[in-house]
Amino acid sequence: MAVVKEPEVLAPEAEETTEVVSRGRLVWRRFLRRKLAIGGLVVLVAMFVLAFAGPHLTHWKTFDQDLDNTLQGPSLRHFFGTTQLGQDVFVRTMAGLQKSLVIGLLTAFFSTGTAAIVGASAGYFGGWVDRILMWIVDLLLVLPSFMILAILSPHFRGKTWLLFVLLLAAFSWMITARIVRGLTLSLREREFVQAARFMGVPSYAVIFRHLLPSMSSFLIIDATLNVGGAILAESGLSYFGFGVQFPDVSLGTLIADGTPAALTYPWIFLFPGLCLIVAVLAVNVMGDGLRDALDPNSSAVKARTMK
Amino acid sequence: MLKFLLRRFANYLVLVGLAACLGYFLAASSLHPRSNYELRNPRPSQQSIETKLNELNLNDRTPLVKRFTRWGTHFVQGDMGKTIQERPLWEEMKRRMGVSLRLLALGSMIGAVAGVTLGVLGAVKQYSWFDHGSTAWSFLILSTPVFLLAVLLKVAAYKYWNSHVPTGWDLYFVGEYTPNLGGGFIEAFRDRLTHLIVPTLGIVLGQIAFYSRYQRNSFLDVMGADFLRTAQAKGLRRRKALIKHGLRTALIPMATFFAYSFGLLLVGATFTEKIFAWHGMGEWFIDAINTNDVNVVAAVIVFQAVLILLAGLVADVLYAALDPRVRIR
Question: Which site among B18, B22, B127, B151 would you substitute to test the A interface, given the most A Cβ atoms closer than 10 Å to its Cβ?
């Protein structure tokens, strides 16, 4: 995903000799060089602002009905048109966008957090802890989280959407946990970890103070990309009515509402759909840029140095 | 090799068994088949509800473990039970598996071949307009949920294709074939084909995007490798070196991705089947949850687990075939 043309990449020794820059600045500079990633970040922030400020641009509320103007196309009165019930598609889309973005962020946070703790524990302790944890990971990987959540959906019908977020996170951490475990296995043998262990630092402190910070780049990238994945998973489940439940709306439920009339009144599904695509695209592009900025071993950077 | 495969197979088999048990427990504890009968109007007598539920092994007053053992013993003997409409489950499942597998096999095969080709072309012509275009395109597709893609395809077929193409070649997006069509074999074939294209596209596009992204990265890694330079230094043409030595190496990681993505394809197919009204396994799963049909949900879970098992085995074989370093005794 490297569109920027400059072929130079700072070699480690060049950094040290020319000027002393902190890692944070270096990463930020590398991130800024990727115009697309910046674009992603800007779009994402803009969508957040729009989702929370947008509803104040019009006096309609999520469940208001304008019965004189049902199934009208976009106009100044209703920016994105109206539904069969005369509900304002713009306000509903904004409400759905709010929910989808918040669910995406929360789920990614919880899922990467779980993955980090489980993976690091499995790798650090080894032995039967490792075996049991990895066995659970294997088992959960055989069944797609979509199916498990769909089956469990009667349990969170009529309950708060936060429960849905927790369940979504509970079934999406497995692959990351595997990778974290792999990283931990190699970090475990490094001097600074060994030193901490021999100084008598308790295990949890080794994990939280030494192991996880050492792989923070990976965790940040993973969390970012997970936001996109979580939004997609949420909307997919909500599309079938297994996710966010009435009276809450998410982009998934809105698209589901609009699908039956997709051929005749396309704006009902098109606007939430576009918002969904743009949001996920922005997150993915940003995550890709972050990866190139944080991880000098990523393939895009490697490919550039090889030329 | 055979021994290795058998060992892997045994390993997968245990996982499938566990997944099936887990699936059954989850389904039996969270679905509520009793409500199907209690909400009927007029409400059947209490006794007939109990009899019916007992007959279908769906009675929530029977302890879960007991229901599970009954389901498990019957299952091992090859009897998957009945659907909640009291039809034999296996009969229905056979038909639906055919429908789903046709969609999945076609979709993943076309998707993998086209995706790998696009990825290689993108890597060879890195930073060309083609590379930028295909990267942007796959980013866009990967950010679009399957159901949205399916609906968009439906709209596109309706608005753009069907209104500009002579009748007879209209693309259909409801069902697998036109009922009561009549006509000969060619008619029927054309009819099936025109029904197949749009739903398959709904799966293929995502697969192409997925494979081309990974194949591009993996091919870029290979293109910088020493052995390719050596091959060219020894007089092999670049194109030949890339295809003979490069492609094979770059395909190795794809074997893993293939297993991963084929296993998860059924989830994507649930949306495709539901939207295009194909009566396959995915549609069955969604309908079964909505009708509290525990037996069907468990059957689909088993099917999904078996798919993942097969995909894993195929990946193992591919891996061994592609990577000369893998020599299993």
Answer: B151
Nearest by Cα to A151 from B77, B29, B116, B308: B29
ipTM for the complex shown: 0.86
Joined together, the tokens standing for residue A282 give 């922005």
**What is the C-alpha separation between B228 and B223, in angstroms, rounded?**
7
| A151 part of contact set with chain B, CB < 8 Å | yes
Q: Do B221 and A299 touch (CB under 8 A)?
A: yes
The three-state secondary structure class of B88 is strand
Distance (Å, whole) CA A235 – CA A233: 6
User: Under an 8 A CB cutoff, do A299 and B217 touch?
Assistant: yes
Distance from C-alpha of A233 to C-alpha of A246, rounded to nearest angstrom: 18
Residues A301 and A291: their CA atoms lie apart, in Å, by 10
Distance (Å, whole) CA A134 – CA A115:
11
A65 by DSSP, 3-state: which?
coil
Instruction: Report the 10 Å Cβ neighbour count for A239.
Output: 27
* Residue written as token pair 């296995």: A185
The letter for the amino acid at A204 is Y
Distance CA A210, CA A291 (A): 21
- What's the CA gap between A286 and A38, in Å, rounded? 7
One-letter amino acid for residue A303 of the chain: A
Rounded Cα distance between A164 and B105, Å, is 33
Written as tens digits, the pLDDT of chain B (329 aa) is: 778 788 888 888 888 888 888 889 989 888 888 888 887 777 888 888 888 888 888 888 888 888 888 888 888 888 878 888 888 888 889 999 998 988 888 898 899 999 999 999 999 888 889 999 998 999 999 999 989 998 888 888 887 777 777 666 677 777 777 776 666 777 778 888 888 888 899 899 999 999 998 899 888 888 888 888 898 899 888 888 888 888 888 888 888 788 778 877 888 889 989 888 888 999 999 999 998 888 999 999 999 988 888 888 888 888 888 877 765 54
Tell me how far apart the alpha carbons of residues A41 and A36 are, in angstroms, rounded to a whole number.
Answer: 9
3 state SS of B128: coil
Strand-pair partners of B82: B88
Long-range contacts of the stretch B176-181 (C-beta < 8 A, 24+): B176/B99, B176/B278, B176/B279
Q: Sort out which chain A residues have CB atoms less than 8 A from B266's CB and list them.
A: 144
- Token representation of residue A188: 């475990």
Surface-to-core class of residue A214, CB atoms within 10 Å of its CB (0-12 exposed, 13-18 middle, 19+ buried)? middle
Dihedral angle computed from the Cα positions of residues A205, A209, A213 and A214, in that order, rounded to the nearest 10 degrees: -80
Count the neighbouring beta carbons within 10 Å of the beta carbon of residue A260: 13
